[in-house]
Each structure stands twice: as structure tokens, then as C-alpha cells.
Specification:
The protein has about 375 residues and is an alpha/beta fold. The chain has helices at about 5-30, 35, 45-50, 65-75, 100-110, 130-140, 155, 175-180, 210-215, 230-240, 250-255, 260-270, 280-285, 290-295, 315-335, 355-370, and strands at about 55-60, 80, 115-120, 145-150, 185-190, 245-250, 270-275, 300-305, 310, 340, 345-350. Helix 6 packs parallel to helix 8. The protein binds zinc ion. Zinc ion (ZN) binds near residues 60, 82, 277 and 307.
């Protein structure tokens, strides 16, 4: 996918140099950089969203096209830009080139896309695993990483040499969790998957297309994998064992079908919060009044996130449109009583009170991810 031929690299450098010369010529005539590009107005439906200084705590932006920085500036948006390692996916196989892409995106967004690192869990049985991993994380922290992602390969893919599935509370990871806590960083825990991953295929499920495209991640086809309950119990266990570690459960903490499941964890674990990434439709699908009451009661424990993903090969125009459309749909759903449409169904918005919106879209992110407001 990435061309390492030096001639192609030299050619692209020359083209980039020519382009930036032409750009400077325009910029000097028309003033500052941001005004030199054709200005796109803020979507009027998003003006109240922008006024919240919103924070999206879950994106994967691996392009450094300046239009993302422009959109983020118009929306007055900051975001947590997350690295993931999954050896089953060619793009996510290793920390590089993702980490380099995330650092470039931080620069091109003027620091709005904030660095969340990860580590490879695969070598957990190798001697020196914890020391090496902590060493890498400390270098990333020094370079501005404010959080560390752990991924569902714990519990659903990785095995010990003896053939057992490795859970997120495996003692091999404990020194790493302790180091993250001692540096006052946060863990983003994408552990387990939606219930639909363990259920027969159902074309009306929000995840139907995903498991069709990723059959290797579909637990229903792998009855030998641990149950979802066992995986979530291991997640709860490491959260409990590390009361000084902030853990944000990605994707509603994989408790997407019933907010009561989340509430039970919140009551037990004060160091646990959840993000809404890629699961807002699941909030739409649950009883309106129950979800509204949950978000008001636990207004300090839910952080807004989307899971918007832009790999280097993705079409930038389409991605920008998807970003705008996602923020607009989510904002209408949380902030107003208007209906939003999802997979052919209409759902009434939650019309949450303004102070609750401010918590979910801004304050909680600042609390659960210290450093997210700092610009590097
Ligand atoms: Zn994600």
C-alpha cells in the first residue's frame, strides 16, 4: 500500500514543493493560511454543537489532509486519535505506520487531534514483555500520548502457549496497567463486542455488515471462543484491581443493548466510564425515557465518541462528509426532540438539558482524559 521506492518519494517531494510554492504565492496575496483555501461555512445545524467546544474521544484519523483541521476548527472540535494493533488486519498489524500518521494528523490539525497510543499485547509471554512495553509507552507519553488503547484481541484471539485464551486481566498486563496509572494516563478499553457478535446473523442488526465483512471476528462462528460474559467479567476484574487507573470502556463498554448493564458497572467502579463510539444507534433503539434518565443520572460517566476512521487510502471528500453527517445526526439526537433516521427507522431525540450536553460533549472528556485540552 505504501510506496517506498525512492524515485516515487523524490517525485512526490518535488510535487509537494511545487504545490507549496504555488500555495505560498496565493497565501501571501490573500493572508493567513486558513483563509487561502475556499472557506466552507459551518453547517447551521452544528452551531450549538460548536458552541459546546465538543470533544470526540474516539477517532482514527490517519490522513494529514488540512481539510480535517479546517473542519475541526469550524466545529471548534478536539478529538482523541487512537492507535490500534490487530495482527488479523493488514493496516493495523503494527504500531507503525499508524503512530506516524497520528502524529502528522496532530500537526496538521494544529494539535486538535490528540495522540492515544497502544502496545502490542502479542508478546505477553516473552521475557521482558512488561519492561519493553512500559519503556515504549513512556516514550509515547513523553511525546504527548494521553491515553492507551487495549483491544478485543484480548479475550477473542490471543492464546497462551498452553492454548488458553488470554483475558484482559491476565497478570502479564498488570505491571503495564500500573505504569499507565502512575503516569496519570487513561486506558481506552475496547474489550468484547456487541451481543450480535455471539448471535446468528440478523440483517436488521447495526453490526450485520461488519461481521459479513470480518467473518474472522464473528464469535458466533467460533463457539470455542470465550463467552461474552466471561470476557466482560475479566474486564470488570482488571478495572476493580486497578482503582487508581481510569478506564473508559469503548463502544458503551460493549454493553450496548441495555443501559442498566452499564449503570451496574458505574455503581461498582468509580474509575470506569464509557464512550459512545459507533454505538449511538443502540441508544436510539432502547426505550427513549430510560436512556434519557440514564444519561441524566450518570451524566459525568459518559463521554462522546464516534469511531470515525480515515485510513490513508480512504477518499477524503467522502470522509469529510461522513464526519459532518455523523456529528449532525448525533447532535440532533442528543440535543433536540427531533427525529433521526437510522437503517430505515425513525427515533425521537433525547432533548437533554444543556448542562448534561456540556458534560457529555466536553467536561467529561476533559476529566477522564487529562491533557486532552493541551495543545502540542
Ligand atoms: Zn475505534
Amino acid at each position: 500500500m505504501r510506496n517506498h521506492d525512492w524515485r516515487a518519494t523524490a517525485k512526490s517531494w518535488i510535487l509537494a514543493a511545487l504545490a507549496s510554492t504555488a500555495f505560498l504565492a496565493v497565501a501571501t496575496r490573500t493572508g493567513p493560511r486558513s483563509e487561502a483555501r475556499p472557506a466552507t461555512a459551518l453547517d447551521p445545524a452544528l452551531s450549538a454543537f460548536a458552541a459546546m467546544a465538543p470533544i470526540d474521544t474516539h477517532i482514527h484519523l490517519y490522513q494529514d489532509d488540512p481539510r480535517f483541521g479546517d473542519l475541526m476548527q469550524r466545529l471548534n472540535l478536539r478529538a482523541l486519535n487512537i492507535c490500534v494493533i490487530d495482527d488479523r488486519d493488514p493496516f493495523y498489524k503494527g504500531l507503525e505506520p499508524q503512530r506516524g500518521d497520528v502524529l502528522k494528523a496532530r500537526r496538521s490539525t494544529g494539535g486538535r487531534a490528540v495522540f492515544c497510543t497502544t502496545f502490542s499485547p502479542y508478546g505477553f509471554e516473552a521475557p521482558g514483555f512488561a519492561e519493553r512495553t512500559i519503556h515504549q509507552l513512556e516514550a509515547d507519553f513523553a511525546n504527548g500520548a494521553i491515553a492507551v488503547k487495549i483491544y478485543k484481541v484480548m479475550g477473542m484471539e490471543m492464546k497462551t502457549k498452553a492454548g488458553n485464551y488470554v483475558m484482559p486481566d491476565d497478570p502479564a498486563f498488570e505491571p503495564v496497567y500500573q505504569a499507565i496509572a502512575s503516569h496519570n494516563r487513561t486506558v481506552v478499553a475496547h474489550i468484547a463486542e456487541p451481543d450480535s457478535c455471539w448471535a446468528p446473523a440478523n440483517s436488521s442488526s447495526p453490526d450485520y455488515q461488519y461481521y459479513k465483512a470480518h467473518p474472522g471476528e464473528y464469535a458466533f462462528a467460533h463457539p470455542e471462543w470465550p463467552s461474552k460474559a466471561a470476557i466482560l467479567a475479566a474486564r470488570d476484574h482488571f478495572v476493580e484491581e486497578n482503582p487508581n487507573l481510569r478506564v473508559v470502556g469503548a463502544h458503551l463498554g460493549s454493553m450496548e443493548v441495555d443501559v442498566d448493564q452499564i449503570a451496574r458497572r458505574f455503581d461498582r467502579h468509580p474509575n470506569f466510564a464509557v464512550d459512545t463510539a459507533a454505538r449511538v444507534p443502540y441508544l436510539m433503539m432502547q426505550p427513549h425515557d430510560k436512556v434519557r434518565a440514564f444519561l441524566i443520572k450518570y451524566q459525568d460517566r459518559v463521554v462522546y465518541g464516534t469511531d470515525l476512521e480515515v485510513q490513508p487510502s480512504y477518499n477524503t471528500e467522502n470522509a469529510l462528509k461522513e464526519w459532518n453527517d455523523t456529528y449532525r445526526r448525533d447532535w440532533i439526537f442528543f440535543s433536540s426532540g427531533r427525529t433521526v433516521e437510522y437503517l430505515g427507522h425513525k427515533y425521537q431525540g433525547l432533548s437533554l438539558p444543556a448542562p448534561v450536553l456540556r458534560e457529555i460533549f466536553h467536561e467529561n472528556a476533559a476529566h477522564w482524559f487529562p491533557g486532552i485540552l493541551d495543545t502540542r
